[in-house]
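Notes taken during the Thursday session

The instructor put the following on the board and asked us to keep it in front of us for the whole hour. The protein is Transmembrane emp24 domain-containing protein 7. We were told not to look anything up and to reason only from what is written here. First, the residues (212 in total):
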Amino acid sequence: MPRPGSAQLLALLLLVPGPGGASEITFELPDNAKQCFYEDIAQGTKCTLEFQVITGGHYDVDCRLEDPDGKVLYKEMKKQYDSFTFTASKNGTYKFCFSNEFSTFTHKTVYFDFQVGEDPPLFPSENRVSALTQMESACVSIHEALKSVIDYQTHFRLREAQGRSRAEDLNTRVAYWSVGEALILLVVSIGQVFLLKSFFSDKRTTTTRVGS
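Then, after some discussion, the predicted structure tokens were revealed:
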């Protein structure tokens, strides 16, 4: 049974879409645990699921996506990161799960971004009798560029967090290895001292006088 925690509370909540129908969450996935999330999607809506394991073990996780009828749309085992795009074939609640059940000792930190539908236009075309002005076109271009910047910043933050985790793990291993080497050198040094001491220690010899 998974240990109770904030990640499980998040898994029980229905995802609340942000601007443009995007949901971004970073959560901890304990060892031998499975976390599922749910999203209500209308038919014909284009969706994208992107995830990445930030910390833990070999930085891998199982991922599974199902439609309202339980049909598997996406399934990957032990993936470090991936992205999957699909169009909803029916109305209902879609379910996607992340599993760390194959891991016995290590928990993972997982980030995912679930985008539902397209972002609303910056300048809606309803009730417009003219094309976008030069200022409006420039605003749209700047808006798209800022969206790209945000995406790049997110990916770079994830890479930085993953790199920091790897560096800390390597530092811990080096520290343990250094302590082990020090203990081995200490044992070898003590052994050599006793060995050299045995070479120069006085040995008592007994002589027997043979009488006539």
